[in-house]
Amino acid sequence: MEGRRLRAALGELEPLGLGLACVGGIDAGEAVRRLQAAPVTGAVFPFDRDLRIVGVTTVPGGCIVTQP
After folding, report:
1. Is 58 helix (H, G, I), strand (E, B) or coil?
2. Kindly report the CA angle at 35 between 32 and 38, in degrees rounded to 5?
3. Which three-class secondary structure string do you get for 10-49?
4. By Cβ atoms counted within 10 A, which residue in 7, 15, 28, 37 is the most buried?
């Protein structure tokens, strides 16, 4: 049941080759801090060229981290 709910939350996103982690108890800002990451500014390059780029978003109860 939970798997179906999470899949529906992805919407039209193509998950093939996408790493996805649901992390409870911290928001996106805290995840970025723990990863010692920095926000991307300026031009954004295609994700498949640089796997060091991740996406982080805050959701109710935690955050979601994605990486191609």
Report:
1. strand
2. 50
3. HCCCCCCCCEEEEEECCCHHHHHHHCCCCCCCCCCCCHHH
4. 28
**pLDDT classification of 16: cutoffs 50, 70, 90:** confident
Residues 6 or more apart in contact with residue 8 via CB below 8 angstroms: none
pLDDT at 17: 78
pTM: 0.65
Q: What is the mean pLDDT of the chain?
A: 78
Q: Which residues are CB-contacts of 60 (< 8 A; sequence separation ≥ 6)?
A: none
Instruction: Please give the Cα distance from 48 to 27 (Å, whole number).
Output: 25
**Can you tell me which residue has the tokens 């919407």?**
11
Tell me the one-letter amino acid at 33: R
CB of 65 closer than 8 Å to CB of 20: yes
